[in-house]
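Hi F.,

I've been meaning to write this up properly since the lab meeting, where we talked about keeping a consistent format for the predictions we share between groups. The idea is simple: the sequence comes first, exactly as it goes in, then the structure tokens exactly as they come out, then a line or two of notes. No screenshots and no reformatting. I'm using this chain as the first example so we have something concrete to point to.
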Amino acid sequence: MKKLLKVTAMTGLLTLVKMGMGFVIAKVVAVYTGPTGMAMLGQVQSVVNSFNGIINSPVSNGVVRYTAEYSERGYDSCSSWWKASLHWVLLLACILIPVGLFFAPELSDWIFRDPDYNWIIYIVLASLPFTAIGTLITSIINGQQLYKQYVALGMISAVLSGLLMIILIIYYNLRGALMAAALQSALIGGILLVLSLKQPWLRFKYWYGRANKEAYKEIGGYILMASATALALPISLVLLRNILISKVGWELAGQWQAVWKISEVYLGVCTMALSAYYLPRLSTISGLEATRREIKNTAKIILPLVSLMAICVYFLRDVAISILFTEEFRQARNLFAIQLVGDVIKIASWLYAFPMLARNATKWFISTELFFSATFVILSYFFINQFGVQGANVGYLVNYILYLIFVVFNLKRFSN
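Output, unedited:
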């Protein structure tokens, strides 16, 4: 319990820095591009999340898990998993980049309704190797549970990349905002690489050569799970924004995106704590009862925290809009209540879903990601027809209630 509190406090500090930079960037975007620019920025971020999620899939949760399991035996014991993850990244890059380049105009037309924005796709694809490097570094540090180093490197990279993004937005307006969103993950990866060059685990001998078959297979399972997440949620968000744009217009879609952005940022405190402490912890325990105890102990900290933050965001929403955005976003104040309740339910459901990652329950994880991403779009479409832009928040809440019920009742099946 004390360790969770410590990790939550440390990652909370990192999240505050990221939150601060995120809010500054959001303010600059709001001032220079308005609600329409905010909606377009959301579309870019979905594209980035999809491509990044796929290229990061070998170097994220799987590396965290196996580094956590084997790091006490020394770097040699972890090396096979690191090699396997790097080889998978190279293979995915050789497939993803050429395919993405070929279909860039079609992707641009679908996402932005304008094929001339294909240059964004090109930037994202060129950034993928640096994005994967950054994720690999943070996963290794996380897996070793070096929380101070994890937080320090995260702060430095967040501040430096954020400043570069702000410069792009100020000088190039909407074009700069879109470019900044496409480049951010790569900037962080490059900064992390420079800061980590002297780390003992980055020696050539731990990365060169073949890995064993088990490592390739196990990391492959995590690739399938992470790719499902990388494709399902961002694509569902693109589809949802397209529905909003067609039903209520770019302006209201931008209002909804502003509220979604605030949720993403403040929930980062909880999601980062779960990734930094909860996933490695689940990877080291086994059995249903031990898993339930860990969920209960974590919930005692996380759920009150996220509930308190949601309440604070709701009562300070007018202040948040004034500080973070402009008067053009004032209508967004009416979209917070249902969204924030959905945020609390979302975190509660993740407490029960994380054992799927810790146990490498590939079929369960992929099935739930695809199914509930689809129901999110379907429910939102139905409720948007009934309630307008507010229907997107209703669909979000209802979908996570259903997801929470599902993972609670099926915990036994994927936690052993």
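Notes:
The chain has a mean pLDDT of 80.
The CA atoms of residues 68 and 228 lie 23 Å apart.

If this format works for you, I'll send the rest the same way.

G.
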